[in-house]
Design goal:
2 domains, globular, Metal Binding Protein, Guanine Nucleotide Exchange Factor, Chain A, seven-stranded antiparallel beta sheet
């Protein structure tokens, strides 16, 4: 998916097309983000910038690097922890302390980055899953930073979608929502009214998509597990998915026909 994963142009296995990309297998693309980015730990804003850099790297999700001048450096304490990346250099880690509470090694810098990523000098990155909150503008971020090259198109469709477990019909609709998402196969979301919801039981599984929202999962009452998912409160890009269910499991057959 997107630039660096799946078959994106900066992934390790780019999709075939009418072009070739010459260069190393591992690629890094650094660009300035136009978004205001804020990070909170312990109820305190430890970083607030409109000058974030977003780093895209083969096989990895996007990472924000924030200028040290826009970070509460008085809350950062260098530690003895270091790691070495063959593509970026040696990283030095920092603990953030807020009112006596420590987030150990939650941030890192590259004091002397390699030439191809010289732009992250004097910048700091955070493990966003270990901070209390991250905001892009005034919207709280869920999951990883959004890739500006990732697209989600949610479209009403009049194709007929049928979902079966063997000979049993679990869903049948001619009014699905079709989701076309960068790097992923099309997904077909069925209105709940057209689903055998009596056969579904809630699962404990939850996943987070920064583009669609928090997904809850459903299992069949007599198995298998996690055969379907839904977004109770989808993000703006996917509002049409509310009250819809998507099916995907090796034991199921999802048939798509052109209406009419």
């Amino acid at each position: 998916m997107t630039l660096t994963l799946g078959h994106g142009p900066l992934s390790g296995d780019p999709a075939p097309g009418n072009y070739t990309i010459d260069g190393p297998k591992h690629r890094i693309f650094l660009e300035r983000s136009p978004k205001r980015v804020r990070i909170e730990i312990g109820g305190v804003v430890v970083a607030d910038t409109t000058r974030a850099q977003q780093l895209h790297e083969t096989g990895l999700l996007p990472v924000y690097y924030l200028p040290l001048d826009d970070v509460r450096r008085d809350l950062l304490t260098p530690t003895d922890h270091h790691t070495t990346c063959p593509f970026k250099g040696e990283a030095s880690y920092h603990t953030v302390t807020v009112d006596g509470t420590e987030a150990e090694n939650v941030a890192w810098t590259y004091p002397e980055p390699l030439e191809q990523v010289a732009g992250i000098a004097d910048h700091v990155a955070f493990y966003l899953d270990r901070v209390d909150a991250v905001y892009e503008e005034a919207v709280r971020l869920i999951g990883h930073p959004r890739d500006p090259y990732h697209r989600v198109d949610t479209l009403r469709s009049d194709r007929r979608v049928q979902v079966r477990l063997g000979d049993e019909l679990l869903a049948d609709t001619a009014r699905p929502m079709a989701v076309f998402e960068t790097g992923l196969p099309p997904r077909w979301y069925v209105p709940r009214a057209d689903v055998r919801t009596d056969r579904l039981v809630p699962s404990d599984t939850v996943t987070i998509c920064p583009y669609k929202g928090v997904a809850c999962y459903w299992s069949l009452d007599d198995g298998p597990a996690d055969v379907a998912w839904s977004y109770d409160e989808p993000l703006p890009e996917a509002l049409g998915l509310a009250d819809h269910v998507c099916f995907g499991h090796d034991d199921l057959t999802v048939q798509i026909d052109v209406a009419g």
